[in-house]
Design brief:
This protein is an alpha/beta fold. The chain contains ten helices and 15 strands. The longest helix is centred in the C-terminal third of the chain and has 24 residues, at about 340-365. Bound molecules: NADPH dihydro-nicotinamide-adenine-dinucleotide phosphate and guanosine-5'-diphosphate-rhamnose.
Length: about 375
């Protein structure tokens, strides 16, 4: 019998899933991931981990599956017999959850129940540990600042309401059936692998493209929103750490620093050698180029307008401010974030600049090159 630990990750093709898979492989795990059937490739973030199915002793194995499919999930859990399940799969976009509330509830809420039920029905209560990707969105309309484990929840979107169910069903299965199940209440975390429609990546990618002349203007929603942003690599380490304790507990994971979306725009532009100034108010607000230094933004000159507000990006109910207090994780687990938000912004902007430069180069040389997908 192999002594390797076996992990199952839902959402392995996403930002966190890809970093977590790397971490677990480094630690010697056999890692199984669930990927969704899609009409085009959706495994870019884990392609570097791919192993030919014809070789022996593979330690990274992908299975088709879906969080809406109970029999599929139960069969996979039965077949894999995981020591640890990390439930990272979700319809994770808050704005999209207003467009697809029922689907979001099914995947993000009931999907969690389906996995917990699989553990219970298969009699794996004493073997399989369960991590639930809970979220700072649970705090929504915040009742206390900073937010900690004891802060009351007030979800403000179908996404957050679905995650609220997932949070409590995780607690309930721990208390009812003795399953080692925990919630990581993670505040926003980003990386060059962040999906392109989340605000930080939209900014770094959009400004890099504008700097290279591939796009002209970035259209934004509520740039007054305040967030506590960390790096996904730091946060997946915490997901693993939570399952290595003697007792299951829930933890807030955050940096304890809060900045506005507007500030993130200014930082990303500065990484490109572009100084911006915001002018106007409300939906008339714009960001104008004040000066350009260095060679990263050849397409820009002073006076260019690079950011405008488009109310279509406003949400029916907004989460205006989030700021986490991760004291419990620091004290009990010795966890500290290593990467600050400026370094995060720099890494993301540099990454997106390289891609924009590549596309601009190809276009200048007569190739019809579309902007590529995920970083
Ligand atoms: P991503 O959106 O990058 O990844 C989501 C993953 O879930 C993808 O692999 C996606 O597959 C998969 N997925 C979506 N729908 C289904 C489904 N029906 N069945 C199976 N898998 C599905 O999210 P992140 O990596 O950023 O976040 C990971 C988890 O952590 C999510 O649950 C998110 O809600 C939560 N979270 C994230 C935070 C953050 O700031 N990043 C903060 C707090 C919580 P595909 O690639 O095919 O789309
Ligand atoms: P969030 O992340 O909703 O916090 O959910 P997102 O990056 O989408 O938005 C952060 C804030 O920026 C404002 N905003 C915009 N957002 C987007 N996406 N696009 C815009 O153009 C724009 N302009 C302003 C938003 O209104 C919001 O206030 C993320 C997801 O990863 C969730 O899955 C996770 O649970 C939470 O973080 C913690």
């Amino acid at each position: 019998m192999s002594s390797k630990k076996v992990a199952l990750i839902t959402g392995v093709t996403g930002q966190d899933g890809s970093y977590l898979a790397e971490l677990l492989l480094e630690k010697g795990y056999e890692v199984h991931g669930i990927k969704r059937r899609s009409s085009s490739f959706n495994t870019q973030r884990v392609d570097h981990l791919y192993q030919d199915p014809h070789v022996d002793n593979r330690n990274f194995i992908l299975h088709y599956g879906d969080l809406t499919d109970t029999s599929n999930l139960t069969r996979l859990v039965q077949q894999i017999q995981p020591d640890e399940i990390y439930n990272l799969g979700a319809q994770s976009h808050v704005a999209v959850s207003f467009e697809e509330p029922e689907y979001t509830a099914d995947v993000d809420g009931l999907g969690t129940l389906r996995l917990l039920e699989a553990i219970r029905l298969l009699g794996l209560q004493d073997k399989t540990r369960f991590y639930q990707a809970s979220t700072s969105e649970l705090y929504g309309l915040v009742q206390e600042t900073p937010q900690r484990e004891s802060t009351p929840f007030y979800p403000r979107s179908p996404y957050a309401a679905a995650k609220l169910y997932a949070y409590w069903i995780t607690v309930n299965y721990r208390e009812s059936y003795g399953i080692y199940a925990c919630n990581g209440i993670l505040f926003n975390h980003e990386s060059p692998r962040r999906g392109e429609t989340f605000v930080t990546r939209k900014i770094t990618r959009g400004l890099a493209n504008i700097a290279q002349g591939l796009e002209h203007c970035l259209y934004m929603g509520n740039i007054d929103a305040l967030r506590d942003w960390g790096h996904a690599k730091d946060y997946v380490y915490m997901q693993w750490l939570m399952l290595q304790q003697s007792l299951p507990e829930d933890f807030v994971i955050a940096t304890g620093q809060q900045y506005s979306v507007r500030q993130f725009i200014l930082w990303a532009a500065a990484e490109l050698g572009v100084q911006l100034r915001f002018e106007g108010q409300g939906i008339e607000e714009i960001a104008v180029v004040e000066s350009v230094t260095g060679a990263c933004a050849p397409a820009l000159k002073p006076g260019d307008i690079v950011v405008r507000i488009d109310p279509k990006y406003f949400r029916p109910a907004e989460v205006e401010t989030l700021l986490g207090d991760a004291s419990k994780a620091k004290e009990k687990l010795g966890w500290q974030p290593k990467i600050d938000v400026r370094s995060l912004c720099e890494e993301m902007t540099r990454h997106d600049l390289v891609e924009a430069q590549r596309v601009a180069f190809l276009k200048r040389n007569g190739f019809d090159c579309a902007l590529s997908g995920e970083g």
